[in-house]
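sorry for the late reply, my laptop died twice this morning and i had to redo everyting from scratch. anyway the thing you sent over, i finally got around to it. pasting the sequence first so we're on the same page, its 183 residues, then the predicted structure underneath. double check i copied it right bc i was rushing
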Amino acid sequence: MDRFDAALSLSEALLADPLPDRWRHVQAVAAQADRLVSVADVDGDDLRIAAVLHDIGYSPAIAHAQFHPLDGARFLDAEGYPERVVALVARHSCAIVEADLRGITGVEEFHDEQSPTRDALWYCDAVIGPQGQLLSPDDRWTEIRRRYGAHSLVGRFLDEAEPQLREAVHRTEARMRVAGVVL
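ok and here's the structure:
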């Protein structure tokens, strides 16, 4: 079994039964990642693995801190996953901003590589809705604000993080155009 298939099996085992919508989201994020493997400077293998693992911290089996990027990263680290994949999971979609708002420490211990691979992961998460549906980033962020409330902690997180998220999306879309990947 290759690294991606092992990560896919792990994600399915942790998410499919207890959180079927989350599992559909993760599968669709991974499918987006598959589309980006030809984009310049994107490490397709690590992107695909991080995409399929990015939300495992929601699993009730491993949710200890109750902050999914950190729970997922700590679990993957304990399982011996590569440091880069662990950090991509810990820092996905500007998680450090939400951690700060929640007063949760630990995410800062993981390196934010600020690379095309990191941007591509953030892009993939930004274009997939909660049940795996394809959305524009604006529609995705609107959906999140509706689901949680514009004035909720998650709404405040998006207000603060959206410029960074939007920049990562724009950089990825520019790289996609150069690579001939349809937006």
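The two ends are 31 Å apart (CA to CA).
thats about all i looked at so far, will dig more tmrw
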